[in-house]
Amino acid sequence: MSFEERLLVEIKNEFVTRRAARKRRLAFGGAVAAAAAAAAIIVPIVITPDPAYAVTRNSDGSIQITIKEFRDADGLERELAGLGVRADITYLQAGMACEHNRYQDVGAVNLTREEMKSLLKDKDPKVQAKVEREMAQRLSERAIQVKNGVVIHPDMLSPGQTVVLEVMENTGASPESDTPQVLSSVTKGVAAGVVKPCVQVPQSGWNDVGDPSKNPEAFPPAGS
CA 206, 212, 218: angle at the middle one, nearest 5? Predict the structure, then answer.
C-alpha cells in the first residue's frame, strides 16, 4: 500500500470515529423474536423462519431496507437486483473491516499530500472541515442513507454502478450498558466498476464512540 493510500485509510478511520454517534444509534429493526407453535398430532407443521430482512419500495421511488438478522446477504442482493439495484453486501464480525481498495468508490476526497499530513499530525480543523464537506457531497452520502435501516435512491445511480454495504455487528454490546458502545455500523460506498471479494482485516479504533462533549447524541442514558 502506498503512502497516499495509508493516509487515506487513516483519514477514513478518523472521519468514521468523529461520526460514531451514527454508528452508536444505528437501527436495523432488531433481532426477530423466537416464535413457538404447537403442531397437530396427526398433521405435522413446518415452520419457515422469518426473513432476515425486509425490502419495500417507497412512494418517492427510494428503497427501504430493514435488516432483522445479520445473515443471508446473498438473498438481499438478489432482491435488490430485482428492483434494479446492483449491490454488494457484507456482514462483518465486530472489530473487522473489508480490506481497503477492493473497489473504486465514486467521488474521492481530494486532498494534497500536505493537507493529509496536516490532518493526521495536527488534526488541522480547516482540513477536517474540507474532508467533511467533500464527504457530504459524495454520491454514497446522497444515494444511500442510514435511516431506520438503509434507504437507497436508485434514481441517483448510473448504469453499471454498485451499492456497497459493509455492515458490522457487535454481538457483545448491550444497549442498556452505562458505557457507550458501538452496537453496529455501516460503511457505504458506490462502486464505479468491479467489486472484489471482501478480505476481512482488523479495524483499529472501531469501538471508540468519541468525545461526549462533541458527540452528546452518542451518549444517551442507559436503556434509551
Answer: 60
Q: Do 186 and 166 contact (CB within 8 A), yes or no?
A: yes
219 DSSP 8-state letter = S
Q: d(Cα 106, Cα 161) in Å, to the nearest integer?
A: 9
Work out the pLDDT band at 167, boundaries 50, 70, 90: very high
C-alpha cell at 135: 464527504
CA distance linking residue 98 with residue 206, whole number of Å = 13
* pLDDT digits 0-9 by tens, 16-26: 444 444 444 44
Nearest 10 degrees: Cα torsion 159, 163, 80, 206: 180
Residue of 133, 132, 134 whose CA lies nearest to 110: 134
Contact in structure between 44 and 37 (CB atoms under 8 Å): no
Give the SS3 label for residue 59.
coil
Q: Cα 94 to the chain's mean position, in Å?
A: 13
Query: DSSP alpha helices (H): ranges in 64-220?
Result: 73-82, 113-122, 125-137, 139-143
Query: Letter for the amino acid at 203?
Result: Q
Which residues have a Cβ under 8 Å from the Cβ of 75 and sit 6 or more positions away?
51, 52, 53
* Cα-based angle 200, 205, 209 (whole degrees, multiple of 5): 125
Cβ-based neighbours of 44, under 8 Å, separated by 6 or more: none
